[in-house]
Amino acid sequence: MSIESVRLPIRSRSTPARGEADVWLARLSDMPLDAGPRGGNRRERILRQRVQQQFFLRLLLAAYLGCPGKSVELDRSERGKPMLSGVHADSALQFNVSHSGDWLAVAVAVGVAVGIDLEVERRLPRAPLLARRFLSPEEAEWIVGLDEPFRSRQFLKQWTARESLVKARGCGLAGCLGEIALDWQPPAIRRLPTDWEGAGAMSLANLALPDGLVGHLATCEGPVRPMIRRITT
User: Fold this and answer.
1) Where is the 4'-phosphopantetheinyl transferase N-terminal domain (predicted)?
2) Could you give the CA distance from residue 229 to residue 6 in angstroms, rounded to a whole number?
3) Dihedral Cα 233, 107, 162, 205, nearest 10 deg
4) Angstrom distance (rounded) from CA 30 to CA 26
5) Which of 35-49, 122-136, 176-190 has the highest mean pLDDT?
6) Phi/psi zone of residue 158: left (φ > 0), alpha (ψ -120 to 50 degrees), beta?
7) Could you read off the pLDDT of 88-118 as tens digits, one per residue?
8) What is the Cα–Cα distance from 193 to 81, expressed in whole angstroms?
9) Averaged pLDDT for residues 176-200
């Protein structure tokens, strides 16, 4: 799975073909986004990052919708999933967003709900505890038996796979993690919550990201091929 480099500004884009999803990867500190507060404390940095994320997301979606970025209105479902609203509320364009550290990932598809989750690789001293709390017993036993740094990386793989499935479904993590069971190397769906209607049609794909990043893409209606594009300046 190769990664295509795309320079700013993002020009008009054709929507992804059936069976494909565009995955956009951007490092916010590398982008000329003059938005948000300029202070240096943690709160101001986080707020600035959120403003930049929303700014980039609107510009990206506008490229698909064929309109100015300021015309793109966003809202959230009752369970917090971002979605188009206003004049584009009935658009078949579907998207999902994830961020970790300085990195932002956006998945875009047509007519199929998508979920994406991204994590920056890092040591997780509490990985065994987190595995026992959030993963299936079989996954947790496997994770606990690994050595670092492999253990932290594999936990993040299992975690991003779960998160992407939950985000594609558009529901919260609470109450469903215990019913999700995945295979590993690579993560694959073994069992999903019984109250997820149409769960048998869900799919999961590992994303071949640059070194230091781990991520997965999930869809609700059959497998799609991720087309990864990285923003460059």
Assistant:
1) 54-108
2) 7
3) -90
4) 8
5) 122-136
6) alpha
7) 999 999 999 999 998 999 999 999 999 999 9
8) 19
9) 90
> Taking the model in full, what pTM does it have?
0.93
Contact 55, 72 (CB under 8 A): no
pLDDT band for position 176 (50/70/90)?
confident
- Find where tokens 């494909």 sit: 20
Instruction: Identify the CA nearest to 21 among candidates 232, 231, 229.
Output: 229
Q: Which helix (H) or strand (E) holds 99?
A: strand 93-100
CATH of 3-232, one of 3.40.50.150, 3.90.470.20, 3.30.420.40, 2.30.29.30: 3.90.470.20
Count CA atoms within 13 Å of residue 150 on its CB side. 7
Instruction: State which H helix or E strand residue 80 sits in.
Output: none
Q: DSSP of 43-70, one letter per residue?
A: HHHHHHHHHHHHHHHHHHHHHHHTS-GG
The residue assigned the tokens 């038996």 is: 145
